[in-house]
Amino acid sequence: MVRHIVFFKLEDASKENKKYIQEILLSMKGKIEVLCNLEVGVNFSPEERAFDVALISDFSSKDDLGIYAKHPVHVEIVNYLKSIHTLTKVVDYEF
Length: 95
Fold this sequence. Notes:
Elements: E1 2-9, H1 15-26, E2 37-42, E3 53-59, H2 62-70, H3 72-83, E4 87-94
Antiparallel strand pairs: 1-3, 1-4, 2-3
């Protein structure tokens, strides 16, 4: 199994926008066959170093992660997040 974790730092970190981004990310559920599990959390920590939203997704293999990366539903979301100047950090690992 492969776990893919992405942290998002939003230019607009309002509570409403964080919730909106969470909903956009969760909308991938059931639309991408290789996606085994998807969880999205909204940060509540006021620390400066904190990111605003976290996505945790699981895949059966590295190949499936690659399929996900190129899937049109995922690409559309990535393009939107880039368009609103979202900073991201990622960690991928096998478990």
